């Protein structure tokens, strides 16, 4: 059926509401990984985004705050960010959207009432409810073989909920090699701190074993703005001699999340990371030098977004994804999505949730879809004004490209 200019928004909203999302990067885990999946109101309130915002107003000593039990931390954040002032920041507003969609009374501002709701839920029920409300079909976890707790789960033969896909997160190999060496040695891989002898082969064996064990859809690392491949460091050698060859061998992308300045304020822990502009020529160099490798890339600095979109025009082995972390604000999602649609058409992955707490899926997707819909509706309006004809089926297909198929097609290439 043809869609006229006056119906575009309505049709697009219907398709956006029904599309089943593939969320390509989260920090969620299945219920089977007991204790690893964060969920519930106290976890929602102690999200590191909100901890950082809490300290804008609080005089409390950082260490003292982190020594408090989680419930007490949640109460302080609730009081400071939701009782004493209006919750207008994106992370604050996210909490309200979650409460609203779960059917709770946002106007009541009753933390106890919200806690009561969660006490009445089992984890499995809540996972189903949240996936349904967020219209999420599958999510990709961040699986860390350097985390002893997580390693234990993979050593068992636990059946994992099929909605939870894996990715192999390898940060220490590229940013803290001595730490990586300790773990690899402990697991029986013959790696030395100076990367000599059979080290490269053993790192490859470690990576290959893990990709196979967890059936990783891609390998990934979060990298600093200073990340470079124009040197002869151990980090560069590990990337070129181990990570990229193993990715090629298994035909999986290497996902680079570039631009995090770790622990700018150490006392804030996870909330203490910041952002820096990175070098796009590093991405260009890797795409040029390794045409047989596939790269999923997101960058944290707003200043990198235009050149990243342009780089993706030059390299078909580069897939841009998401508006990451400090960019996941409505005004920036709008700007970045428009820039990408105008330079890349529909050939990118507009968003990932980065959800750290289960219920984040609800607000991150609802807020993003609304803005991506606004931008896309405007583009449809512009082409319809030329006499172009649009059908409902085509709108559906376009939306499926953005929210599901671009990712899986890139994996299959
Ligand atoms: Zn993340």
Topology readout:
Layout: H1 8-18, E1 21-23, H2 41-45, H3 48-54, H4 62-67, H5 70-83, H6 90-101, H7 111-119, H8 123-134, E2 136-140, H9 148-155, E3 164-169, H10 171-175, H11 177-186, H12 199-214, E4 216-223, H13 234-250, E5 254-258, E6 260-261, E7 274-275, H14 280-289, E8 295-299, H15 305-314, E9 318-320, H16 330-344, H17 360-384, H18 392-412
Parallel strand pairs: 1-2, 2-3, 3-4, 4-5, 5-8, 8-9
Antiparallel strand pairs: 6-7
Helix pairs in contact: 1-17, 1-18, 3-5, 6-17, 8-17, 12-13, 15-16, 16-17
Bound molecules: zinc ion.
Residues 25, 27, 354 line the site of zinc ion (ZN).
Name of the level-1 CATH class: Alpha Beta
**Any idea what the CATH architecture is?**
Alpha-Beta Barrel
Q: What spatial form do the alpha-carbon principal axes imply? A: globular
* Order of neighbouring strands in the sheet with most strands: 1-2-3-4-5-8-9
CA-atom Rg in angstroms: 22 Å
Mean pLDDT: 97
The total count of strands amounts to 9
Q: Which key features would you list for this structure?
A:
binds zinc ion; 9 strands; 18 helices; single chain; TIM Barrel; two-stranded antiparallel ribbon; alpha/beta; 7-stranded parallel sheet; 413 residues; globular
